[in-house]
Write a structure and sequence with these properties.
This protein is an all-alpha fold and about 725 residues long. The protein has three domains: about 325 residues, no CATH class; about 160 residues, no CATH class; about 170 residues, Up-down Bundle (Methane Monooxygenase Hydroxylase, Chain G, domain 1), CATH 1.20.58. Helices cover about 75% and strands about 0% of the residues. It is a multi-pass membrane protein.
């Protein structure tokens, strides 16, 4: 993708309104947390303390809107404590460049490395850098430092208390994640009616699994309905694929295909009803016709063989989904099982036991080629350079420049640039709005404080609709907050705009100077996915060779690893498509073809898994030889893909050639899916097998194709391609 097109996509993304469900009650409660600390501080103490209280309450409240599965009150308390600590340390170092600049560098590096723990940790850590920067404008005595730090921590405590006293939709995010997983399987069932080989994106199931991990305290109060249905969705998915597949399931035409479509449609209705029930916590209606379809007539059933088995298994599983939909799930107060059943829960470490996890995650990212490490280095450079530049300018709030840089920067190119655009646009709109209001109402500390709370409420309401729109009211909030302290808008508004532009420009420049492009890493991500898929397919085959509970557990472990590798590939591929970098190792078309081939390989393994015999069932010793060949060939092919060599499937071909005749006929499903896997691997080899000259020519042709598409779009003659 060219730089011009990349920047156009950045502007479009930065100003896009995201379609999401607003949560006004949550926004109102969080804004109330700001009000109950700002009001008393403004009335009883001073505007300076009110500003500190507002900093803690606003930032702690914003942290609770991040996507996390930990209790919101814990996030609020943690954010408040981090802001208070960084404020206190900043007070001690403020006043002298020789002490403050090294502290700022260390704090920025730590905030950047916090992304190793996830986006929520990275965003909250970035706010602590902002609080560190704000302290340079406040008194520097140790006593005042403790007072302001305490007031900031009080803002986090206030938010946590409101969450505890006024719970809004407890376990709502967890319910949504589980409901989304069931709805995704329902949508897949509908697509299988028209496309029997439609692929499935496992991302909703992965999110639901992540949401299912709980701490011991959460396990004691988690609704029972949030435990079982996730496994139900996992079991239904391969059965749906097995029923719809024309090779091992229902026939491609005739009454059998019509019957399969009826069952798939009924499954979609039942799963949608179960999803609604879990999301709302109330019984959901299931169309009467769907329940009638889910009956297997022993005498008149048209499905036979593996298709009949899949239909019977689907009806059994959907009976559980029907029970969930009609009962409305368990009540929110239902306790989780204790004793041995507790071991079935996915365990999330408590905050006190998180330290070893943090150390290991950070240690893993401490390498030069890590996007997280490079993000931390960019944060250090931009924060310190922005502070030095702004301190030399004739402005009174120089910390706005480095703070803008820190808040917009992300480990990837597209998000950093899009947020920089969104922050500048939101700041311009917000300061213009706030300026007009101040001019109309006149300066008054109490009025400004009230308007700051209203702006905070609007910012929280729009926080998930797009960064620019939330930032608009955040900028207005800051203007009103400064006005509450007696500063005229003529001083603050121009400074805010200029310094935001400076900070955003530094953030964008930093990524150009020290980038972390995903494009060159695509072959490695593809190799990881290929190796993980090979282990998953081999685990499934070993389930046929020796049907035991241990092999089923290995199958599940390998499936999860395969999904994680696929998610890492998809994230890298999506980022690479938005980067202004010439393809290296894989062109966009080659990457797309390789992705489609591995998706088909995944699907064949999933179909094979749907027919694995239960523990103690009939074994197929020949499947072990194929498993060993498949695992060895995919492991070697992963190395070949990394080194840009052509992969080879000699062991798999030799094993399949030997597995002919009567032995292969005993396992038609395994044999058929193994052939499909081999074809998928051959397509993968075709996609990535290129001589160096062919690869260079392919990259050049792709660049010409993209340029032509962009020119056509600019001329209005056709749409631009979205692949890079």
């Amino acid at each position: 993708m060219s730089w011009l097109r990349a920047l156009r996509e950045v502007v479009r993304s930065g100003l896009t309104i995201e379609e999401t469900r607003l949560e006004p009650l949550l926004a109102l409660r969080t804004a109330a947390g700001v009000a109950i600390v700002v009001g008393p501080m403004l009335w009883l103490v001073s505007p300076a303390y009110a500003a500190s209280a507002a900093l803690g309450a606003y930032s702690a409240g914003a942290a609770t809107f991040q996507r996390t599965w930990r209790p919101r009150k814990v996030i609020a308390l943690g954010a408040g404590a981090g802001l208070a600590f960084s404020t206190f340390v900043g007070y001690l170092a403020a006043g002298r460049l020789v002490t403050f600049l090294p502290l700022l560098a260390v704090w920025a590096f730590a905030a950047g490395m916090a992304w190793a723990l996830g986006s929520t940790a990275g965003i909250v850590a970035a706010t602590t850098v902002g609080s560190l920067l704000v302290t340079v404008t406040l008194p520097t005595s140790v006593g005042r430092a403790l007072e302001h730090a305490g007031v900031i921590a009080l803002g986090g405590v206030a938010q946590a208390l409101l969450i505890l006293l006024f719970p809004i939709r407890r376990w709502g995010a967890h319910r949504d994640a589980l409901a989304d997983a069931l709805a995704a399987v329902a949508d897949h069932a509908r697509r299988l009616r028209h496309d029997p080989v439609a692929p499935f994106d496992p991302a909703p199931l992965m999110t639901a699994r992540d949401a299912a991990a709980v701490t011991p305290s959460q396990a004691r109060t988690r609704p029972a309905v949030l435990h079982g249905p996730r496994g139900l969705a996992e079991r239904i998915l391969p059965v749906l694929a097995a029923l719809a597949d024309p090779d091992v399931g229902a026939p491609a035409e005739g009454p059998g295909r019509d019957r399969a479509r009826e069952l798939l449609d009924a499954a979609a209705h039942v799963l949608d009803a179960a999803a609604r029930s879990i999301r709302r916590g109330t019984p959901a209606e299931v169309p009467p016709g769907s329940a009638d379809v889910l009956r297997i007539d022993e005498e008149h059933e048209v499905l036979e063989g593996p298709a009949r088995q899949a239909a019977e298994r689907l009806v059994e599983l959907l009976a559980e989904a029907l029970e969930i939909a009609r009962s409305g799930g368990a009540p929110d107060e239902a306790p989780a099982p204790s004793g041995p059943a507790r071991a079935q829960f996915l365990v999330r470490p408590t905050m006190l036991r998180l330290l070893p996890v943090v150390v290991e995650a950070v240690r893993h990212e401490l390498r030069r080629d890590s996007p997280v490490f490079r993000h931390a280095v960019r944060l250090v450079a931009v924060a310190t350079l922005g502070y030095l530049i702004a301190s030399r300018l004739p402005v009174g709030h120089g910390y706005w420049a480095p703070m803008a840089s820190v808040m917009v920067m992300r480990p990837d190119f597209h998000l950093t640039y899009a947020r920089a655009v969104g922050r500048l646009a939101g700041t311009l709109a917000g300061v213009a709005l706030a300026t007009g209001i101040v001019q109309a109402l006149g300066p008054d500390a109490h009025v400004s404080g009230a308007l700051a709370v209203v702006s905070a409420a609007l910012s929280y309401t729009l926080i998930r609709t797009g960064y620019a729109y939330s930032q608009c009211f955040t900028a207005a909030y800051v203007v009103f907050l400064l006005g509450m302290g007696g500063q005229a808008w003529e001083q603050t508004v121009p400074e805010r705009v200029v310094l935001t532009l400076l900070g955003g420009s530094l953030a964008m420049l930093a990524y150009v100077v020290f980038p972390a492009w995903e494009t060159p890493r695509l072959p490695g991500r593809l190799a990881d996915w290929l190796a993980a898929d090979g282990r998953y397919a081999a685990a499934v085959l070993r389930g046929y060779a020796e049907p035991t509970r241990e092999h089923r557990a290995d199958m599940r472990t390998a499936l999860l690893a395969s999904r994680e590798a696929r998610a890492a590939w998809q994230e890298a591929y999506d980022q690479a498509r938005q980067e202004p970098v010439r393809p290296r190792g894989l062109t966009s078309r080659e990457a797309q073809e390789a992705q489609e081939a591995l998706t088909r390989f995944d699907r064949a393994a999933m179909l094979m898994e749907s027919h694995v015999p239960r523990a103690g069932g009939r074994s197929a010793p020949e499947a072990e030889r194929l498993a060993a060949a498949l695992e060895a060939d995919t492991a070697q092919a992963a190395l070949d893909v990394r080194e840009h060599r052509n992969p080879d499937w000699g062991r798999v071909e030799e094993t399949l050639h030997a597995w002919e005749g009567a032995d292969g006929d005993r396992n038609p499903v395994v044999r058929r899916e193994a052939e499909l896997q081999k074809r998928a691997l051959e397509d993968l080899a075709t996609a990535v097998s290129r001589t160096p000259l062919e690869r260079d020519v392919g990259s050049a042709r792709e660049e010409q194709r993209v340029r032509a598409a962009v020119a056509a779009e600019g001329a209005g003659t056709g749409p631009a391609h979205r692949d890079g």
